[in-house]
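Narrative of accomplishments. A recurring question from our advisory board has been how the design workflow behaves on a single, concrete structure rather than in aggregate. To address it, we present the structure tokens for one chain from the evaluation set, followed by the sequence designed for it. No filtering or post-editing was applied between the two.
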């Protein structure tokens, strides 16, 4: 049983909407032009899709931030780049990042809903999240933590209703051999196990961080922090942040053996600078960068 996970592609800087200059999108576009454009390797996405074919996963998980300002032009571009995945028989699960739900303009929301619908093969509508679904013995709990925020924020929110639903699923008895995974955009904790800063954290994450610590959750997959990390809990649970694919070129590969009941994890690199590293534990700078 294999999952391949990537995040934060951040196709960016595209919109023909003049009203983008009147809201948060202006700051997002300027940030993209000044800080990001020269550093992003959009070609890593094509390489990643090629590598994924060889890895033959049971599910590909994309934890959001496909775009920069959540515009219809950006979603159209990234869906075109993802066409090899969309046109294959590969099972995919995608949920939004804060950049995909950047502003509340109707056409931006419609583009997000369309991308969600297409990438998830029409299985759910976005407003149905959180959802629970099975991949073999794995139960995946997926939650939308993103909604438009003020320009100076890149944080997310767990609503009381979503938290209640997730905890009800986690508190229910497990069936034989069942493992439980959380899929969200935001890390529950950083690579050192601390809360993220107020401006970019997931507000309301504490009950889920507790569930990872006490064994009700086995694995949490996320993005948002652009530096990939793996954090191991004392009980063997893991939080895995895939980082920004187009910055670091890493795919997070998670294998589960029903025979042993154990997960194993490694990183596959599609970056320019060499073969795939096998990295264990927190990697690169623990502070992380990005949103
Ligand atoms: Fe993000
Ligand atoms: Fe991001």
């Amino acid at each position: 049983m294999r999952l391949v996970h990537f995040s934060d592609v951040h196709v960016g800087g595209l919109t023909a909407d003049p009203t983008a200059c009147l809201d948060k999108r202006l700051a997002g576009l300027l940030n993209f032009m000044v800080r990001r454009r020269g550093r992003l390797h959009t070609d890593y996405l094509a390489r990643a899709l090629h590598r994924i074919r060889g890895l033959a996963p049971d599910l590909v998980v994309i934890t959001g931030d496909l775009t920069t300002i959540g515009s219809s032009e950006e979603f159209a571009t990234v869906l075109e780049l993802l066409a090899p995945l969309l046109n294959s028989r590969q099972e995919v699960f995608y949920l939004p990042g804060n950049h995909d739900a950047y502003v509340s303009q109707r056409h931006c929301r419609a583009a997000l809903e369309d991308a969600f619908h297409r990438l998830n093969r029409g299985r759910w509508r976005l407003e149905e999240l959180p959802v629970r679904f099975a991949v073999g013995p794995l139960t995946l709990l997926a939650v939308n933590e993103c909604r438009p925020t003020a320009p100076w924020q890149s944080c997310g929110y767990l609503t009381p209703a979503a938290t209640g639903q997730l905890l009800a699923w986690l508190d229910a008895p497990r069936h034989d051999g069942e493992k439980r995974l959380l899929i969200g955009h935001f890390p529950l904790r950083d690579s050192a196990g601390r809360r993220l800063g107020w401006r970019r954290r997931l507000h309301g994450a504490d009950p889920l961080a507790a569930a990872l610590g006490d064994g009700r959750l086995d694995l949490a997959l996320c993005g948002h922090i652009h530096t990939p990390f793996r954090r191991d809990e004392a009980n063997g649970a893991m939080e895995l942040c895939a980082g920004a694919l187009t910055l670091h070129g890493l795919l997070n590969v998670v294998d589960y053996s029903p025979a042993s009941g154990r997960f194993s994890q490694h990183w596959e690199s599609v970056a320019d600078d060499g073969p795939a590293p096998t990295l264990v534990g927190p990697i690169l700078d623990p502070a992380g960068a990005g949103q």
